[in-house]
Prior knowledge:
Shape: elongated
Distance between the termini: 77 Å
Radius of gyration: 26 Å
Amino acid sequence: MNAQAQSSDGIAGQISAALANNDADALSALFAEGYVDQSKDFLGDGDLLRQLNELASAMPDARVEPTVLETTDGVIAVSRKISGVVQRDFMGYNPPPVPVHIETMDFFTVDNGQITSRRGLIDKIGLLRQLTTPFPANAPSASATVHEVMRFNSGEFPEGLIDDGKGGLLLTMLFDNKILSIAPDNDVEVFADLPFASDPKSQQGTMCIAKSKGGVIYLTVHSRTPEHHGLWRLDEDGSARVVAAMPQDAIPNGLDIDDQGRVYIADSSGAVWQWRPDASELTIWAADDLVRRRPYIGNFPGPNGLKVNKNYVYVTVSDTGAFIRIPIRKNGDAGDTELIAHGAPGDDFAIDSNGDAYVTTHPFNSLLKVTERGVEEIVADHEDGVIGPTSAAFVETANGPVLYVVTDGGLYAPLPGVEIVPKLFRIDID
């Protein structure tokens, strides 16, 4: 090994140690006179020392794992995997404490044991997605009693929940092709076995379920078979048929029906679709800025849960944490979208007789009460066993409406040390 290579190997260890400790002083001591940073990184003009200082300030407990990938004459390449919790302002954002994982690559040119220049790369989009995660708004805890009703098999993913009109529930299992019936006495039967492929690995199967006032049941189905991908109707005898297909790049999710029999579908890629009983096709009904997910940095689904209440379509937009509503005009067209609340990154929800929504937050392990004043209360959370809540429904009983919530038990976002057990809960709201 020649002297230059030996010199490069020696300084590589010093660079790696300085990066591992976010130590700007130790790194600057290695700079040659006239050192140039040629990078454009997440702080603007390239400045590795400023980057290290901001990382140390925003993530004081960060774990940094540098790896020297290549040492050649005059060039040292170092990758970093940085993980920790952002606790202070970072990149112009002031999020709540949020865990992030950052990957970087730095190329250092060295001469005579000193760094003469540097070029750096960072996964900006991945970092922005994490920093801008739409966490639920802070709110006081409500007075509610949570009852565990039943457990499902580990690995199952309860998804869509509705009142069956008989005091019980109908439930879809995500990426399965069976609809379950849960009777008031908690007896479970297969209500329908649907005629399409289902496979969790390829994400094919039933998504959500809704029932019209006339008793007609509709389903959203995700399928790689184009003619199966979209809106289905389920008849009383258990037979099912495709009503209208959706494009393959659409993600059919929550759905509901208005008094005129028109079906509305939340497309998690960024739109709300409508199907009219006299039509053979679905059409995009709403796709404005409040409906769409964020371009490039969207990290969660766009429109997710959807309910029709009176003359409005209510929608959770998971990626922005927005709870919105869209007026239904007399001709069935969409009015101007209205923002009801921020800080409600919801999956599904149920609306009570007062028009208040009970929103399941799925990976955030909570059920929120959302009104026109915003996020008012945390009705239940992981301390109540509500882990991975995916759907909510009010069931009409002889004693009045009862709220049910179903969870995936943490299958999507596991909690450390907690067994993944999907569950159904009944929640008594005081």
